[in-house]
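User: Design a sequence. Structure:
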């Protein structure tokens, strides 16, 4: 597994638009482009992302000259929440979700066993991630990691706040 690169300058522009429009405690965690379609994933600290949040941020971005300059005038914006069980693939997501509960799966180079743990993401760097489960502090390398997902338990807790 490796982390997909995203343009932090684009993220900064989008987050400034969110703040300037009075939406607090919200971060952009991912941007995916496919032709003229641009999917932007947002995250709210300590709150679930609602359909209304996505609609409001879509409206802000769709009416923004800055967004047209970034992605083109004919771009179609879709804003989404991280979603339950979402796979984490970018360094921005690792940054945002540090301290959150995740599910990591990996295997060791010397065996054919697939390991899985539900743990708190405590750190990440160019070599891999560190997670704390109930028993251990684990350091997993990017080459051994098969997937990292948000924990469904974490999303349920955030949804109840």
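Assistant: Done.
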């Amino acid at each position: 597994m490796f982390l997909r690169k995203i343009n932090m300058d684009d993220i900064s522009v989008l987050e400034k638009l969110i703040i300037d429009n009075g939406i607090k405690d919200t971060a952009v965690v991912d941007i995916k482009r496919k032709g003229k379609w641009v999917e932007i994933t947002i995250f709210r600290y300590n709150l679930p992302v609602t359909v209304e949040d996505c609609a409001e941020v879509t409206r802000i971005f769709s009416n923004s000259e800055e967004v047209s300059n970034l992605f083109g005038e004919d771009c179609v914006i879709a804003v989404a929440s991280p979603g339950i069980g979402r796979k984490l693939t970018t360094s921005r997501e690792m940054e945002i979700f540090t301290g959150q509960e995740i599910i990591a799966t990996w295997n060791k180079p010397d065996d054919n066993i697939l390991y899985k743990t539900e743990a708190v993401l405590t750190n990440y760097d160019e070599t891999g991630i560190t997670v704390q489960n109930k028993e251990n502090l684990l350091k997993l390398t990017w080459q051994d990691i098969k997937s990292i997902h948000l924990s469904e338990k974490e999303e349920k807790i955030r949804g109840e706040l």
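The two ends are 33 Å apart (CA to CA). Strands lie at 26-34, 37-44, 76-80, 101-107, 114-125, 128-132, 137-141, 145-150.
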